[in-house]
């Protein structure tokens, strides 16, 4: 269903009655880390530049989707700041009518020099990928010695009062001993530390026969040391179950990314760096927007194709995985999908 209000404020709903107002847009598949949970140690075969959406195509797509009711955009990668002149794109997007919130997910390595301008442009928040506070474990997980740059970015974001969420993927045998120390970041700082179930988006498939560090186990581990932790309100479309330790400045979230318990309220769609629309993280792409635009399609034709795709959306991640046209289990790199 697609509705247009009296004030030309549109809303797009999927076939399950869920509003779609959040676009996660990958601007590159390249990354300067080799995280264990994201790609093989040898990396992935990156796309030629000509296969990526251009800034002009991205601006056109966001403008079209904003007119349909998308008001929140998150730029992801790969690592978004690896793409040349990313700030130029950010300056364009924040001026698009209808876009109220622009967010960025980054590993922080190249982000620090841009933080003052991100503040001036009104970037709503930054999600910082940081899986450990231990420099040696950081190097083991990412295969790069870049902890200092990431932590510098965290401190600068806090200094500029830009809302920060720290994304930490919980990996058995890699960083489970970091859960409680990372939780302590919320004691003095108004940050949200979010622990995420590991997913099989690493270019290889699942690392384990069975996921043992589920969201329930993560929460039980936290409660073993903080039995007074309190449940707080989750936003309407939150992917995390959110909690707070009394007296702490920040909060903690646990994301059931593999268990997929939040699908019923999902309001987001993804577009990969090469312009593939994913109406669910677990599908393998339902539409090639890049090729459609490059074939000469009008904005109305693009909008019509988008509406048709939204009206065939899977009910949840399990159905999306079953529908995959490659008939394979999920295995692609998160760097290719868009984080």
TrEMBL record:
Q: What is its EC number?
A: 4.1.99.22
Q: Does the keyword Cytoplasm apply?
A: no
Spell out the Basic and acidic residues composition-biased ranges: 320-330
The superkingdom of the source organism is: Bacteria
Molecular function per GO: 4 iron, 4 sulfur cluster binding; cyclic pyranopterin monophosphate synthase activity; GTP 3',8'-cyclase activity; GTP binding; metal ion binding
Task: Write the record's keywords in alphabetical order, separated by commas.
Answer: 4Fe-4S, GTP-binding, Iron, Iron-sulfur, Lyase, Metal-binding, Molybdenum cofactor biosynthesis, Nucleotide-binding, S-adenosyl-L-methionine
So which cofactors does this thing need?
[4Fe-4S] cluster
Give the reactions, separated by semicolons, that this protein catalyses.
GTP + AH2 + S-adenosyl-L-methionine = (8S)-3',8-cyclo-7,8-dihydroguanosine 5'-triphosphate + 5'-deoxyadenosine + L-methionine + A + H(+)
Residue ranges of every copy of the Radical SAM core domain listed in the record: 15-228
Matching entries from SUPFAM superfamilies are given as: Radical SAM enzymes
Q: Which InterPro entries match?
A: Aldolase_TIM, Elp3/MiaA/NifB-like_rSAM, MoaA, MoaA-like, MoaA_NifB_PqqE_Fe-S-bd_CS, MoaA_twitch, MoCo_biosynth_MoaA/MoaC, rSAM
Question: What name has this protein been given in UniProt?
Answer: GTP 3',8-cyclase
- Protein species of origin: Chryseosolibacter histidini
């Amino acid at each position: 269903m697609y509705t247009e209000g009296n004030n030309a404020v549109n809303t797009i709903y999927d076939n399950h009655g869920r509003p779609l107002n959040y676009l996660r847009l990958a601007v590159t598949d390249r990354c300067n880390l080799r995280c264990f949970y994201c790609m093989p140690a040898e990396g992935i075969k990156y796309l030629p530049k000509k296969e990526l959406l251009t800034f002009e195509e991205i601006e056109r797509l966001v403008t079209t989707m904003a007119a349909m009711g998308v008001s929140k955009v998150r730029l992801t990668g790969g690592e978004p700041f690896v793409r040349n002149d990313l700030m130029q794109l950010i300056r364009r997007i924040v001026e698009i009518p209808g876009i109220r919130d622009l967010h960025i997910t980054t590993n922080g390595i190249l982000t620090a020099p841009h933080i003052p301008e991100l503040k001036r442009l009104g970037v709503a928040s930054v999600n910082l990928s940081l899986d450990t506070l231990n420099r040696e474990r950081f190097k083991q997980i990412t295969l790069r010695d870049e902890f200092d740059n990431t932590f510098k970015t965290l401190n600068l974001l806090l200094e500029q009062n830009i809302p920060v969420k720290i994304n930490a993927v919980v990996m058995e045998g890699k960083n489970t001993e970091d859960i409680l120390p990372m939780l302590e970041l919320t004691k003095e700082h108004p940050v949200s530390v979010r622990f995420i179930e590991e997913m099989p988006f690493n270019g290889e498939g699942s690392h384990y026969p069975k996921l043992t560090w589920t969201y329930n186990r993560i929460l039980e581990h936290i409660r073993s040391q903080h039995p007074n932790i309190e449940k707080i309100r989750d936003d309407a479309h939150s992917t995390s179950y959110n909690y707070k330790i009394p007296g702490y400045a920040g909060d903690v979230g646990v994301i059931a990314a593999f268990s997929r318990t939040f699908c019923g309220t999902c309001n987001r769609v993804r577009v990969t760096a090469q312009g593939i629309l994913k109406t669910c993280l677990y599908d393998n792409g339902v539409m090639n927007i890049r090729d459609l635009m490059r074939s000469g399609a009008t904005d109305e034709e693009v909008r019509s194709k988008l509406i048709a795709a939204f009206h065939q959306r899977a009910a949840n991640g399990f159905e999306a995985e079953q529908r995959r046209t490659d008939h394979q289990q999920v295995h692609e790199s998160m760097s290719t999908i868009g984080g």
